[in-house]
C-alpha cells in the first residue's frame, strides 16, 4: 500500500513539472504574438498583459477581430494612384510642358537650336541620374517614372538634332538612336521596370506627331520607327510584357496609315508605293519575330496577345498593302496575296514540331495561309479557274484535317468546299446556252463529274482515318452530296435536252412531256440502284436514301405529272414507276435477312 502511494506522489510531481514547462513555453509564444501584433495591421487583438506571469498551464486567449469592408483595399488604391499614376501622368505632362517651352523660347529668339539641344540632353541625363538615385533608395515607382522620362527626352533631343535642326549628320543621329535604344532595353531588363519601357520607348512615338516641321523625311522617320520597334520587340521577348507589344503595334500602324494619307493628299512629296511596301513588310516581320522566337528558341507556348498580334498583323498589313498598291499596281495584289499565303504556310510548317506543346500557333498560321489562298483565287484567276482553285484548296484542307488529327481545320474545309460548289452552280450550270449545249458531255458536265469524283475521294480519305467502329460524319455528308449532285445534274440535263429539241423542232409540248417523264423514270431507277448498292455493300444509309427518293418520286408523279402530262405519258410514267417500286419491294423481300438479321422468318409448312 505504501509503495502504491509513493508511486502516485511521484507521478503527480512529474505532471506538475510538465505543466510548469508548458506554461513557460506558452509565455514565450504569447510574447512573440504581441511583438508581431505591433508590427502588422491589427487583424488579431490580444488581451492586455496581466501583471506578473500567467498561471502555469493557462493558455492566453486570442480574440479575432473581423476587418471592416474596404479597410484593406482603400489604402492600396490610394497608394497606387498617388505613388504610381500621378508619377506617370506627371512625367508626361512635364515632358510636354518642357518641350513646348523650349519651342516657345526658340520661336521668340531667347535660345538657339544648339542651346535647345544642350538643355534637352542635360535635362535627360538629370532625370536618368535622379531615377537611379531614387531606385537605390527604394522609391521604385517614382524612380521608374523619372528614368522613363529621361529616355523619352533623350529620344526627342537626338531626333530633333538631326531631323529638324541638322546639327549632326543623319548617320550620327541614327547611330545615337541605336545606342539609346540598346541602353533603354538593357536598363528596362536590368531593373525589371515595365514603366521604363512604357514611358521611355513608347513616348518616342509622340515625337513625329508633336514636332512636325516642314515636309516629313519619310526614310529617316521609318528608320526611327524601326529602331523603336526593335527595342520594344526585344523587351517583349525577354520580359513578356504584353501591353508593350500591343501599344507598339497600335502606334506604329497609326503612323503607317498616316503616311498613306499624306501621300494621297501630297502625291509629289509622299512616300513612294514601293518604298512604303518594303517598310510595311519589315514591320510585319518585326511584330511576328517574338512569337517565332518563343516557339523555336524558348520552346514556350504563345499567349493570347501573341496570337492576336499574329492575326492583327496579317490583317493590317494586307489592308495597308491594298490601299498602297491597288491604284498604282492593281495587278500585284493577287501575287502579294499568294506570297502571304506561302509565308504563313511556311510559318505553320516551322511551328508544326511544337504542335504537341502549342497547337494554336501552327493552326493560326495555317488558317491565315488558307484565308489568303481563298482571297488569291478570285483576285488572280478568272473563269473556270476560280472553281478549280477553290476545289483544290478544299482538297488540301480536307487532306490536312484528318492527317493532322485537328478538327479545327474542318470548318474552313467546309466553307471553301461550299464556295467551290456555289461557283460551279452559278457559273457552269447557269446561265444555260442552248447553242453550245452538249448532253452529258459538255464542259459543265465534265466539271461536275470532276467535282463529284473529288467528293468521293475525300469521303474515302475520311473513311481511312475513322476511329474503331465509328463512321465519320464527313463520309456520309460527302458521299451523300456526291450522289445528290449527280442526280440533280442529270435531271437538269434531261430537262434541258428536251428544251433544246423543242427549240430545234418547235414541238414544245411533246418534248416537254418527254423530259418530265424521263426525269421521273430517272429518279425511280436511281432509287432502285441505291437499294441494290445498299444491299450489296451492306450500307443502310444508301437504302434510307433510296426510300426517301422513292417517296419524292411518287410525290412528283401524283402532284405534278398527273396534272401536266398527256394521258399517254401519264400511263407510261405510272406503269414504269409502279414496276420500279415492285422491283424494289421484291429486292427488300428477297434480302430481308440483311435488313434485320436477328429476325429470321420461319420455314414454310409443307403438306404431308
Give short descriptive properties of this protein:
single chain, 608 residues, 5 domains, mainly alpha, disordered C terminus, flat
Order of neighbouring strands in the sheet with most strands: 1-2
Structural class: mainly alpha
Number of domains: 5
**Shape, principal axes of CA atoms:** flat
The major β-sheet equals: 2 strands, antiparallel
What series of H and E elements makes up the topology?
HEEHHHHHHHHHHHHHHHHHHHH
Number of helices: 21
Output mean pLDDT. Answer: 79
Distance between the termini: 112 Å
Helix fraction, binned, reads over 70%
In percent, how much strand structure appears in the residues?
Answer: under 5%
Q: How many individual β-strands?
A: 2
pLDDT < 50 stretches: 40-54, 56-75, 597-608
What does this structure look like?
The protein starts with a helix and ends in a 13-residue tail after the last helix. The protein has a two-stranded antiparallel ribbon with strand order 1-2. With 608 residues, the chain is mainly alpha-helical. Residues 40-54, 56-75 and 597-608 have low confidence and may be disordered. The radius of gyration is 41 Å and the shape is flat. The chain folds into five domains: 17-64, no CATH class; 81-255, no CATH class; 272-380, no CATH class; 390-506, no CATH class; 508-593, no CATH class. The relative contact order is 0.03. It has helices at residues 2-39, 73-107, 113-136, 140-163, 170-191, 194-201, 206-210, 218-239, 242-265, 273-296, 304-325, 332-351, 359-380, 384-404, 410-429, 443-464, 473-505, 508-536, 540-564, 567-590, 592-595; strands at 44-45, 63-64.
